[in-house]
Every structure is written in structure tokens, then in C-alpha cells.
Amino acid sequence: MNAIPFGKGVPAFGKAAGQGFGRKGGGAGSDAEAPKQDGGALDTARTVLEAANDFRDEATAAVCRRVIEASMNGAQPSLSDLRIINNYFQ
Predict the structure, then answer these.
(1) Residues 17-26: pLDDT tens digits?
(2) CA distance 5 to 29
């Protein structure tokens, strides 16, 4: 059986939605309503936070909360926190 490691070869979570997903039917809403930010790190942090909570991984959950908070406040999350989140499923 061929093993496919999760997350290998996949660019980043949430990238498909930002590239016009749902626009053909017109039901997705306009871009003027959505905040202008890169949601890739935020979506990834939310996914990892959910997994960390399921595994009761308190340290990783705290990292995810810091990244989510920084993204919501318009600040840049620390590089070390982003590395932890990006390498969580590897």
C-alpha cells in the first residue's frame, strides 16, 4: 500500500477558497464584505487548534491561539509559532 503523508504537496489550507471558489453561481458574496487578509495561516491555525484540542496538546493550542490573535489584530505572528503550526501534521 502506498502511504500518502498528510500535508505533503498541499500548498496551504484555505488557498482554494481565495482563488474564486463559489463565484460562478454568484452565491458566495462580494469581496468588499470580506476583510482583506491572507487567511492561509489563520485557517491552518484554526485547523491545528482543533486537532490540538482533540489530542489535549496544551502547548500547541497556546501557539495556535497566539497566531489567531495576532492575525485578528493585524499583527504578524512570530516565525517560530508559524513553523510549529505548519509542521504539526508532519
Answers:
(1) 444 444 455 4
(2) 35
> Can you give the C-alpha Rg of the chain in angstroms?
15
- Amino acid sitting at position 69: E
> Residue 1, class by beta-carbon neighbours within 10 Å (0-12 exposed, 13-18 middle, 19+ buried)?
exposed
Cell readout for 87 is 509542521
Determine the Cα–Cα distance for residues 57 and 69; give it in Å rounded to an integer.
18
Evaluate if residue 78 carries a pLDDT over 60.
Answer: yes
User: What CA–CA distance (Å, rounded) separates 56 from 54?
Assistant: 6
